[in-house]
Amino acid sequence: MTLQYTPEEMMVVTASRQPGNDDVCFVGIGTPSAACNLARLTHAPDITLIYESGTIGARPEVLPLSIGDPELCETALTTVPVAEMFQYWLQAGRISIGFLAAAQIDRFANINTTVIGDYNQPKVRLPGAGGAPEIASHCGEILVIMPHSTRSLVPEVDFITSFGFGHGGNERADIGLTTKGPTLVITDLCLMRPDPETKELTVESLHPGVSREMVIDATGWTPIFADDLAETPPPTSEELAALRDLNERTARAHSRVGGHQ
Amino acid sequence: MPTVTTLHEAIATHVRDGDSVCLEGFTHLIPFAAGHEVIRQGRRGLTLIRMTPDLIYDQMIGAGCATKLIFSWGGNPGVGSLHRFRDAVENGWPHPLEIEEHSHAAMANAYWAGAAGLPLAVLKGYLGSGLPEVNDNIRFIDDPFTGERLAAVPAIRPDVTVIHAQRADRHGNVLIEGIVGVQKEAALAAKRAVVVTVEEIVDDLSASSYNSVILPSWAVDSIVEAPGGAHPSYAHGYYTRDNAYYSEWDAISRQRDGFEAWLEDTVGVAAP
Asked: Is the confidence at residue B188, as pLDDT, over 60?
């Protein structure tokens, strides 16, 4: 029997397969957090998850709603001040993977979480940078997870909050960045990886049931497909069960009103 | 030794129109009760400083307290937008709001520099980001030893810092536990006054470690017992984060009239 799953489940499960057991991950809230915890609950039990609130080695039972839920602190190996987090652990290069979500990403993997439209007269004011600019420059590599649409995958972002590859080529090294930058974009339709030379995001794998046309229609530029275009392996029943358990526990926990401990 | 006083008295004494004010607490221990008191006392023209404006600054901005915001992430965590913040930035309601926008790394470093008595913070940051182009308080300097190009931001030195903590003892020493954020740095960076609201005032702080985060009494100006003063954020060991309230705030704050009704019902003041 074929397993039934949603595009979002496909996206999160695929993302969860990327980090390994030895990785130290700086985890953004939302789908990055879901993917990283799914990795921990399946193939990477010893993965180190770091949230910018200062929690190192968090092992939350349910997904946090915010970056600083008590669950993160209670299950962490240690909780450090926020300045120390950004100075000793992120800036000094001790984190292998940064896992980010993005409101907007462009052809060269630059990320915008600041504004849609002009900065001084914004059409939509987005939350802003948070930790992302320095996560994007100091982690060994960056994984980006986001739903695929022409609104979110655009030829050029309105504002570069976090630098990917600029206009492509060697621009990253030219401005003094020594880390890899975004190495993989995981959407609900496909996987995209920067071309080794041009750094343009290139479709390397389509999720099951997704056609080239669907990706072309949902992308704000005409995407390039890899010569050896692959099909992403579907979720296993174990992965799906672990993700659904996690989501169910999380929904139950968050519907409860805060009370005395 | 700090004065142990009421919330009304502490805010009336220390927070003045036109001040730069910092109400910190990184998701945890956000001083909501104190923020509501600032709204009740009708403060205007404030420069509000916080890494994550959160619901507390959404409320203070909507109530008309602020003319400037210095921040690094202005969303409702895990929920979406801060609608009152967006209405001020996008439409100038109830007042136009000047913004000075940073990254978390820069703000955390700027608090740290403020606490350390330095005029600026230096960091490896903002490389390739558009923020330096829209914020004149982000500049670059060359390391005099290696020539490496580094980002620089001014130290944060608010007139007044307000934080919430678990406990104070009767001498006025303050204990902060759990996600400690940048509260210690923000308190020590204050130029004129530090106000601390606490869940309870006790005989013995009962710190759980020799290395607990403690603000000595002589670094604090006013202590206020305000149980529940961090709700809907949380006070670790006392009450958990009211995640449902954070979700409900989206509907309460989306329209101006909904927010104004909340302002009257919950804080007890008329709309701005």
From this structure: yes
Distance from CA of A77 to the nearest CA of B (A): 12
Does the structure show a pLDDT above 70 at B190?
yes
Containing structural domain, residue B39: 3-101+157-267
Same domain, B55 and B129: no
Omega of the bond leading into B144 within 30 degrees of 0 (cis): no
Looking at the structure, tell me whether residues B203 and B83 fall in a common domain: yes
- B182–A82 CB contact, under 8 Å: yes
Name the domain count of chain A.
Answer: 1
Same domain, B60 and B182: yes
B57 part of contact set with chain A, CB < 8 Å: no
Model-level pTM greater than 0.90? yes
Residues in chain A: 261
**Residues of A with active-site annotation:** 52
The pair phi, psi for residue B23, each rounded to 5°, is -110, 95
Query: Is B51 within 8 Å of A177 when comparing Cβ atoms?
Result: no
The answer to whether A207 and A7 have CB atoms below 8 angstroms apart is: yes
Beta-strand pair B20-23/B139-142: unpaired
| Tens-place pLDDT, residues A74-124 | 999 999 999 999 999 999 999 999 999 988 999 999 999 999 999 999 999
Closest approach of B51 to chain A, Cα-based (Å)? 8
ipTM of the complex: 0.96
CATH number of the domain to which A172 belongs: 3.40.1080.10
Please indicate, yes or no, if residue A132 is contained in any of the structural domains.
yes
The answer to whether A81 contacts B184, with C-beta atoms less than 8 Å apart, is: yes
CA dist., res. A219 & res. A215, Å (int): 6
A116 within a domain of the structure (yes/no): yes
| CA-based nearest residue in chain A for residue B237 | A261
